[in-house]
Amino acid sequence: MAKPAEKIDFNSDRGSNNNIGFTEKLGYGFGDAASNVIVTAASSFLTFFYTTVVGVSAAAIGTIFLLSKLLDGATDLGMGVLIDKTKSKYGKARPWMLWMAIPMAIVTILLFTVPSGWGNTGQLIYIAVTYNLLFIVYTAINVPYGTLNSLITQDQHQRSVLNIFRMSSALITMLIIVNVTLPIVNVFGGNQSGWIIAFSIFSVVGAGLFLVTFFTTKERVRPANAESASENIPFKVGFKALLKNKYWVMMLFLMVLMYVFQSFITGVTIYYAEYLLDSAGLVGLLTTILLVPAILGMVFMSPILKRFGKRNTFIAGASLIILGSLLVLVNPESTMIVYAATVIRGIGMAPLAGTIFAMLADTIEYGEWKTGVRTEGLVYSGGSFGTKVGGGLGSAMLGWILAAGGFISNGDAIQPDSAITAIIFMFVWIPIIVSAIMIVILSFYKLDKLYPLIVKDLQERNS
User: Fold this and answer.
1) Best-predicted range by mean pLDDT (6-20, 106-120, 268-282)
2) CA 44, CA 263: separation in Å to the nearest integer?
3) Predicted confidence band at 11 (pLDDT cuts at 50, 70, 90)?
4) Quick one: which of 3, 14, 358, 437 has the most CB atoms within 10 Å?
5) Cα first-last separation, the chain
6) Chain centroid offset of residue 28 CA
7) pLDDT of amino acid 18
8) What DSSP string describes 378-445?
């Protein structure tokens, strides 16, 4: 059994913080609600807005999204270092929510104010600049938010509960946003100005929710031995330790794949509703019957996780997504079949959303046990890198596959059969492929059983 490079003393302040109040859990969950008010809304509608309202090429948008996300993901490690070096009376992660809430709101509004008189090249440059700026600011607030889970408590089950609050808030917010966005846009004219007003409202709400998270949470977990504190660990040492953490590497790939799936589902649904079900307005209902089962499933996640563990719960969810996706193939143009399949996929989403970030948090203790180095910021920045690469790859592939299928970037155009086939492929087969790969990866994941022994061993080494 590997010995840590530095002794870490688990004192009572670090090891016994099991009583997290409802207000703090809810306040923590509001942080992901804030992210989804802004970022999920943007990811759900941005490709549609750029191709049908602004009128730019789907292929160009896909390329911008991918390159931007790769650049953005590379900044995550830098943000992880900043978190680990942050010293504040508020802690190392919480203050970033206070500092970045308003800048994020401002940049989100700019995302939709594409100048109409700049020409195609000028518009693409504006889109690239504002899109990159948004996700730089998003990195500066979302990586600290994710890190906060591991700093509130070290208790494995309480981390899972915090993650359930987080993802429940995220899913509820997604449900609301997807249903109200187009109506708000239409109330304010249905043109670009309507989109700007809608996202101005979302941005103000998102900034307020981030501030609620800041004021209602508390950082408790820290090494008692000052020499092992993350702010004293050089980046090179921390990064090498990260690469030796096999379960973190697995989670990195899972993050990429899960957010490829999420990006496709949020991005392609409006196209599927418009061109397969003959009504873009059905996007709200489709999203509702996807997210409501996922939200209701969160109610049962805590006892299920206790009984079956995170790994097995995740695999069950991925299997349901495959089953639901296969059902669509019975008749891709049948509204009722698509509804039924969407409900099944929604049930499958609950285990994925309810486990993913709690599993990432558990890799912190494994890495500390394996290498003696504890760097919460780097662990979460790496996970955030995976979500952004996955989201960027998914958004890029959405644009590329649409372009490869001959999709015409004009809201009034009749699409060729090849474009319809491409939309079906993205709606049905991408989720199947991604879910199958995630199941294969998780067949090697053993941390659920090891985690209690790891924490006990860490405590015994330093008692």
Assistant:
1) 106-120
2) 8
3) very low
4) 358
5) 17
6) 15
7) 56
8) HHHHHHHHHHHHHHHHHHHHHHHHHHHTT--S-TTPPPPHHHHHHHHIIIIIHHHHHHHHHHHHHTT-
Token duo for residue 457: 């061993």
Please name the residues in contact with 115: beta carbons below 8 A apart, sequence gap of 6 or more.
122, 123, 126
- Model confidence pLDDT, tens digit, residues 322-356: 999 999 999 998 999 999 999 999 999 999 988 88
Considering only CA atoms, give the Rg of the chain.
22
Please give the full DSSP string across 260-292, using - where no structure is assigned.
Answer: HHHHHHHHHHHHHHHHTSS-TTHHHHHHHHHHH
Six-digit token string for 241: 């330790």
Confidence of residue 175 (pLDDT cuts 50, 70, 90): confident
Helix (H, G, I), strand (E, B) or coil at 19: coil
Model confidence at 9: pLDDT above 50: no
Residue 191, class by beta-carbon neighbours within 10 Å (0-12 exposed, 13-18 middle, 19+ buried)? exposed
Q: What is the CA 356 to chain-centroid distance, rounded?
A: 10
Which amino acid appears at position 9 of this protein?
A: D
Q: Interior CA angle at 153 toward 91 and 306, to 5°?
A: 155
DSSP state of 92: S
The confidence band for 15, taking pLDDT boundaries of 50, 70 and 90, is very low
Higher pLDDT, 319 or 411: 319
Asked if 155 and 18 touch (Cβ cutoff 8 Å), the reply is yes
- Fold that domain 17-461 belongs to in CATH: Growth Hormone; Chain: A; (1.20.1250)
| pTM of this structure | 0.71
The mean pLDDT of the chain is: 84
Q: For residue 237, what are its two tokens?
A: 């040492």
Q: Is the dihedral of CA 396, 398, 401, 405 positive or negative?
A: negative
Residue 106 has pLDDT above 90, yes or no: yes
- Structure-block tokens of residue 440: 């294969």
Chain center to CA of 17 = 26
Residue 116: both structure tokens together: 């109409």
Distance (Å, whole) CA 388 – CA 263: 10
CA-to-CA distance for 27 and 20, rounded, in angstroms?
Answer: 11
Strongest mean pLDDT among 98-112, 230-244, 360-374, 411-425: 98-112
Predicted local confidence at residue 12, as pLDDT:
37
Could you state, in order of their start, the residue ranges of all structural domains in the chain? 17-461
- The DSSP call for residue 372 is S
Cα separation, 423 vs 428, whole angstroms = 9
Question: Helix, strand or coil for residue 86?
Answer: coil
